[in-house]
Structure formats: C-alpha cells, structure tokens
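User: If only I could read backbone structure tokens as easily as an amino acid sequence. Underneath my words sits a plain record pairing an amino acid chain with its backbone structure tokens. This is the protein in question:
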Amino acid sequence: MQITVQKIADSIGGKVIGNAGAFIDRPSKIEEAEPGSITFIASEKYISFLNTSKASAYIVDKNFDCPSYPDKNFIQVEHVYGAIAQLLAIYNKNNQPSIGIAKSAIIAASAKIGKNVSIGENVVIADNAVIEDNVSILANSFVGASANIGTDSIIYSGVQIYHKCIIGKKCIIHANAVIGSDGFGFAPQKDGSYAKIPQVGITHIEDDVEIGAGCTIDRATMGETILRKGVKLDNLVHIAHNVDIGENTVIAAQVGIAGSTKIGKNCMIGGQSGIVGHLNIADETVFQAKSGMTKSVKEKGTKWYGYPAIEYSNYLRSFAIFKNLQKYVLRIKSLEEKIKNIERQD
C-alpha cells in the first residue's frame, strides 16, 4: 500500500517538515530502513542512525531539530509512540480477514450471527451463541453454547471460548487461548482423593481487552472471572477462577494469578511473576519481573520485587548488601580473630 507522507501526517495528527509528496509503502525499524519506508525516533540514542538511514520519512517529537537534517523528511507529532500505533493500524488493515463464512464452519441453527462477520475454516459455533457485527473468527476456533462475542472483536485461530462466556467489543484474542476452562477446584476426601467442585460461573472479558497466545482464563466457581476494560495480557498468562483484573492493567508473559485475587486499575505486572490467591492489589501497583506476591498491597502506586516480594527500593538496598555478603563474612571472621588475640593478650 503506497501512501504519501502528507496523508500519513493527516492520519496521525502530525506536521510535515520536508517533502510531503514522498511515497511510503511500509513501516520499518530505523536500523533496517530502505527507500519507501517510514520509521521513527523516540529516543536520543537512535539519532545517530539518521547519518546512514535510507528511510523516506521519520516520525519524531515536535521539538526535534529537523533543520539540522535538511535532506530528510519528517513528521512531527505530540507523542511518537502513540503516532506509531496509529501508523501501524493503517498498514494492518490489509491483514484483516475477508468477510464471509467458510463452507467447513459448523454453526448451530440457534446461533445469532451479525453483519459483516468473518468465520474461518472448521470453526464451530454452538447453540444460542451470539456473534455480533464485524467480528472475525479464524480457523479451528470454538465458541461454546450461549457465549457472546462483541462487535469488532478478532478471535484468532485455535481459540476455545467455553459456554456462556462473554467477550466485549473490540477485543483481540490470539491463537490457542482458552477462555472459560474450569477453575482449579477440588475438595479433599477422607480416602486422600479429591472430588471435583463444579465451576458454574463464567469468564467475562470487557471491551478493548487483548489476550495473548496460549493464555488460559478460568471460569469462576460462582459468579465471574473478569478482565475489565483495556486490560492487556502477553502470551502464556494464567488467570485463575474468580480473579478480577482492573481497567488498563498490563500483564507480561508467564504470569500466574491464583484464585479470587483482585488486581486494581493501571497495574503493571512483570513477566514470570506469581500472585497468590485471595489478595487485594491497589491501583497502579508495579511488580518487577519474577516477583512473588504473598500479601495484599493497600497503598496506591507502589513498586515491588523479589520472592517473596518486598518494596522495590528496599530490595535494591538489600541486594547491595547480599551481593557483598561473602566479603562481609570474611571481615567479621577477621574481626573475631583480632578480638580473640586481644583477649589472649589480656
């Protein structure tokens, strides 16, 4: 898709410095940029690439010193990363599935299918499921009985959405995610075995949520497991039964959150972190990667690290001591020996 620099600037709310008529056919990384591509500079460490880059245009901050590079074409914007997101959305339109229902799809007669829907090969849609307008469901996915998928959502291949689960509007669920599998509920018996506790609740995904590939989000024992508006999950995240994830919280890969924990709004959870069950985590809490949270967080906006996790600033101070622990041990032993020698002399 070819588009002029001016057209891109109009689409992302930017101002052109240079040749507004230059044609762009693709976005690219600045290290790999070739003629016809557009890239961006969001950090000073990338400015040096301007001396060798062959890109046809650059998205930069409004305060960038464009006159120092008179042979380059720039689009100045308020927020570079926000503009890049808009730019990539423009080029991503060509990757959207075509509208229509594949012949191999199996759709229950009682299911309700909206307008402009794309349903791929071997998709199964069960009784009384509702697929709203402009939804795309790619090959080999399953939508259970009485499940609901909201307008403009994209369900990638191999996704399994169990019965009665709710997917909001403008959601993206990547390949092989499982929504609404049973929560891990078992009652110990006298003979040492475990009896399964039926999981009769649902999983509820609100609007504008993105769920990465291979994620598993359990249905509630009773009530709802809920991911609220704007939540973003990386790949391979596990959310247990009755967990409540607050608005605009982001969770990196391989995180596990145990049952009935409530995560606040605008939290950031680093990769491979683990959070035990039945906790309450305050809004804007940040967990560094590999943190293990074993207690509730009451104060808004704190940062945590380690296992068990402690406040980040305390962790850094503690680690400064820990990494020199052997040296301190030797010093203590040396002092003990000196004290013994003094005592012998007395």
In short: The chain has a mean pLDDT of 94. The first helix runs from residue 5 to 12. Residues 100-312 form a domain with the UDP N-Acetylglucosamine Acyltransferase; domain 1 fold (CATH 2.160.10.10).
